[in-house]
Design a protein that fits this description.
Structural class: alpha/beta
Pfam family, one: M20_dimer
Order of helices and strands: HHEEHEEEHEHHEEHEEEHEEEEHEEHEEH
Strand content: 15-25%
Distance between the termini: 27 Å
InterPro entries: Amidase_Cbmase, Bact_exopeptidase_dim_dom, Peptidase_M20, Peptidase_M20_dimer
Largest sheet: 10 strands, mixed
Organism: Muricoccus vinaceus
Helix content: 25-40%
Keywords: Hydrolase
Protein name: M20 family metallo-hydrolase
């Protein structure tokens, strides 16, 4: 991007237009948090998800962008470059939310991609390579776990049918929901699953407190820590709470408590870098006067160090088995992604764009996983963050201001132009 075109491009990013689009999308699945904050519950592959996608599609088609969808529901909007055969630059994020989610997580990355492309077109800035905005399917994993199914399938990290039997709380399988979704979008042009882009850049709210605390405008994301997710099922026997002696019980809840206590000891970290969470617990038969015969709970374990992620993750099952007393144990790992580092081609483009616009930027890792994680083996990849108020996310209180989001989109637009006009060939992986 030349110095002469940069001011036109930056000015073409509309803070108000972007904010209006975000607020329009926030109406779809709108909820109110415990503190009165406006939030969103928009599960993937739901009617609300499809309604939001149609809104995005209408905006994209209004700009003259080509709209396509692949077999797992990943949605693409394409801005052509001067060389239609050149490998495209991808940008985007996801449109689904957590059940008690905020208005910015994920969706801003898709809206920002569209706003950046619109600004590029309105400013008359030419790019050699096409730019494609993507909305990945099921990043959150709120309805169907694990998350990032769309990007994992696109990157061939897992086959597209790997999660066919995964069911939501109502018993609907991912395959059933996807088939229904594909029928509803039968009018959209189909594209093959996967590809070889030149680069990938994802814009996202930070979901943490660092940028706000340090007074920084832009986070130049250097990588993503590794994650391992497990489901643990502990099976005992039901008994009458009033008549069954405690010493003879096979109490699944008590063994769960023993297991989690032992896991907390395993995951103790004086540096407070390790992340260990039991986020979901199901108890059966779930009555107040019956000893539980079955408990199912989830484990979310994350760490930036590959060896520690492997060692502690592999110790989870034996730790649980040694802790329980009278019940059977089944441990299933449902997600495993090692830490990744982002490519300097992308991180430098983000940092250069922020610096050129007089914005304060800092290099930082991501504690949360994102679709960008699965682009790393495919092409140079990276992310940029904007501040989150109080570091809150996955909560209706999640908030980033319109000026903060607009600043991020201006950096995104400039970085996309820089990448889309690079003369070097992307490395072959």
């Amino acid at each position: 991007m030349s110095a002469s075109t940069a001011p036109n491009l930056i000015a073409a990013v509309s803070e108000q237009r972007q904010w209006d689009r975000l607020m329009e999308l926030a109406k779809l699945g709108a909820i109110t948090g415990a503190d009165g904050s406006p939030g969103v519950n928009r599960p993937c592959l739901s009617p609300l998800d499809r309604e939001a996608r149609r809104l995005m599609i209408g905006w994209a088609e209004g700009l003259g962008l080509a709209v396509t969808v692949d077999e797992i529901g990943n949605l693409f909007f394409r801005h052509e470059g001067t060389d239609a055969e050149a490998a495209p630059v991808l940008t985007g994020s996801h449109m689904d939310s957590q059940p008690n989610g905020g208005r910015f997580d994920g969706i801003w990355g898709v809206v920002a991609g569209l706003e950046a492309v619109q600004a590029i077109r309105e400013a008359g800035v030419a790019t050699k390579r096409p730019i494609e905005v993507v909305a990945w399917t099921n990043e959150e994993g709120g309805r169907f776990a694990p998350g990032c199914m769309g990007s994992m399938a696109w990157a061939h990290f897992k086959p597209a049918n790997a999660w066919d039997a995964v069911a939501d709380l109502e018993g609907v399988t991912f395959r059933q929901a996807l088939d229904e979704h594909r029928k509803a979008e039968a009018d959209l042009a189909r594209r093959p699953l996967g590809g070889k882009p030149f680069a990938y850049l994802e814009a996202h709210i930070e979901q943490g407190p660092l940028l706000e605390a340090e007074g920084k405008d832009i986070g130049v994301v250097t990588g993503i820590q590794g994650s391992r997710w497990f489901i643990v099922e502990i099976t005992g026997e039901t008994a009458h709470a009033g008549t069954s002696p405690v010493s003879t019980r096979k109490d699944a809840v008590q063994d769960m408590i023993r297991a989690i206590t032992a896991l907390n000891a395993l995951m103790t970290d004086p540096t407070d870098v390790l992340r260990f969470t039991v986020g979901q617990i199901e108890v059966f038969p779930n009555t107040s006067n019956t000893v539980a015969d079955r408990v199912r709970f989830t484990i979310d374990f994350r760490h930036p160090d590959k060896e520690l992620l492997i060692t502690n993750g592999d110790a989870i099952e034996p730790t649980i088995r040694s802790a329980v007393k009278g019940c059977e144990v089944a441990v299933t790992e449902r997600f495993h992604a090692l830490p990744v580092e982002f490519d300097a081609l992308v991180t430098d483009a983000v940092e250069d764009a922020a610096t050129a616009q007089g914005l304060a930027a800092v290099r930082m890792p991501s504690g949360a996983f994102h679709d960008a994680q699965f682009m790393v083996p495919i092409c140079p990849a990276g992310m940029l963050f904007v501040p989150s108020r109080n570091g809150v996310s996955h909560n209706p209180a999640e908030y980033s201001s319109a000026p903060q989001l607009a600043a991020g989109t201006r950096v995104l637009a400039a970085a996309l132009v820089e990448l889309a006009n690079k003369e070097t060939t992307a490395p072959v992986f």
